[in-house]
Here is the input.
Amino acid sequence: MIPNVFNFDFTEPIVFFWLCIVIFVIVIFRYFLLASIFHVYFYLWKPEKWQIRKLNKKQYPPKQFRKEMFWSLITSLIFSIIGAFSAVLWQKGFTAIYLDINAYPLIWFPISILLSMFIHETYYYWLHRWMHQPKIYKIVHYVHHESKITSAWTAFSFHPIEGILEALIMPAIVIFLPMHIYAIVIHLTIMTITAAINHLDIEIYPRNLFGNLLGKYMIGATHHSHHHKYYRYNYGLYFTFWDKLGKTESPNFTKEFEEREEM
Here is the structure.
């Protein structure tokens, strides 16, 4: 049962402030929870099992995690403020968000998530390529690439301008794409989980047909590590299809991924 949030006027400054706080707590809790789970399991609890699938053998630089958490806190705050503005748009009737699960056929629920992810993927791919233009890179994207060896904590480590640019897509999507509120939550959770997987620096996709297909068509640690290593390849977010179509997939990716599958 979803509470009637329309009892509050989100345009009231004090209500908007507390809405930002609530969303911030949710976003930062989700980030720290998921990043902690990945880091603890793969690096602290089961390190001997996964070290053979570690992509970079060098140690993380001192204070890297602290810097990543700092930038991630700022990113989470930006996500929260834009999320609160999205709630205002929702309350004023400017979005296609719905609360009644029966408002659309149930099959639309998963379809809307996939469509939203496709739109997000397309937006991010071209935004990411643009951010690698030399003049833009120095202003916007350099913070993320300060993590030469990525970690689960790198997932939200962005310059504030990049954080804003990345956050704007979800409000744009829900203005025209009907999505249940829980479908939005699932999409955002998938985003956080996949970001942690992509930056983990350990290839976690299993050594079987299922893992091979996942690793080649969904972005994992091997695929994204080539982006941080070579800069001019592998710009995708969830899937590899735009890199394949745009001819920006690293020529060494498939070979390295298949070699790691044999380990």
